[in-house]
Amino acid sequence: MEREFWRAVLRWLDTHSGAGLFFHLSQVPLGGPIHAALQAVLDEQGRRASIVHEERRAMLSSPLHAQDYFEASLSGKKRKELRRQHTRLGELGNLAFERRDDEHRLGRWIDDFLALEHSGWKGAAGSALASHHATAQMFREALSGAASRGKLERLTLTLDDEPIAMLANFITPPGAYSYKTAFDERYARFSPGVLLQRENLALLDRGGIDWCDSCAAADHPMIDHIWRERRRVGRISIAIGGPVRRALFGQLLRAELGRSPTGIDGLTG
C-alpha cells in the first residue's frame, strides 16, 4: 500500500498546508520500497521534489557469521583490547549478559533503561528520553507494543545484577532496527557499550534477518567502526499546494540546491 499511502499524504497536504511552502521529509531511507513508491507517485502527479541532503549511516548486512564479521571488522589489536576490558570489568564483580525477546519484567527493564540513559550526558543536556514525559511515555508504549507482537529484542550487560549497558532492537523481518542503547558512563573506560554491540552481532546468525539499521547518526564514532555497511538516508523537499505555492517552492529549491551543487540526487516529477 506504499503508493496509496503517499497519494493520501500528498492529497491531505495540498489542502491542509497552512503557511507551509513545501513538505520536508527527513531521515528517509533511500533506494527501498518506501522511497521507490514516493518517486513513482511524484512522477505520476508531475510534482516537483528533490533530495536536498544525503548521508550514510551504519548498517549491518553481511553473509558472514557473527564471529567472522567481528574478526573482519576489528583489528587484532582492537579485539585484544576488548578482551582485556571484558576481563578487567569482570574483576569488579559478577559480569553477565542477557538477551530476551519476551515480555518478562519488561516494565522494570524500561525503567532501568530510562534511568541509565538519564544518568549520563543526555540527562545533563536535557535530551534523555526521561527528560520529558512525552518521550518517556513514547518509549514505554513503543517497547510494550513491539514486545506484545514478538518484535522486541532486549540486550543487557549487568555488573552484580545492575545494568551497565542496555540495547533495544526492533525485529521486523527481513530487517531489524537498533532502536536505542545506553550505558553507564562510570564504566566508560571498559567500553560496556562496545562489549554489548559485540553480542549484538548475533543478529547476523538470526534466521529471517538480512540487515539491521543502526538508527545512529552518520559518522558515529563507535558503531561505524563495528558495522561496516552503510544505509543511504536523505532529506527530501516536496512541492505542495496550488500553483503559486509550488512556484515559490521551485525558487526555494533552486536556492537550496545552489548552496550544495554536488552530491545531490535529483528526485523530480
Structure commentary:
This protein has 269 residues and is of the alpha+beta class. The chain folds into two domains: 2-55 and 232-259, 2-Layer Sandwich (Ribosomal Protein S8, Chain: A, domain 1), CATH 3.30.1370; 63-227, Gcn5-related N-acetyltransferase (GNAT) (Aminopeptidase, 3-Layer(aba) Sandwich), CATH 3.40.630. Helix content is 41%, strand content 25%. The protein has helices at 2-15, 33-45, 66-73, 76-90, 106-118, 121-125, 133-148, 192-200, 243-259; strands spanning 22-29, 49-60, 95-100, 152-159, 162-172, 175-183, 211-213, 229-239. It has an eight-stranded mixed beta sheet, sandwiched between helices. The chain starts with a helix and ends in a 10-residue tail after the last helix. Mean pLDDT is 93; it is low at 261-269.
Keywords:
single chain; 269 residues; alpha+beta; Ribosomal Protein S8, Chain: A, domain 1; Aminopeptidase; 2 domains; eight-stranded mixed beta sheet; 8 strands; 41% helix; 25% strand; elongated; disordered C terminus
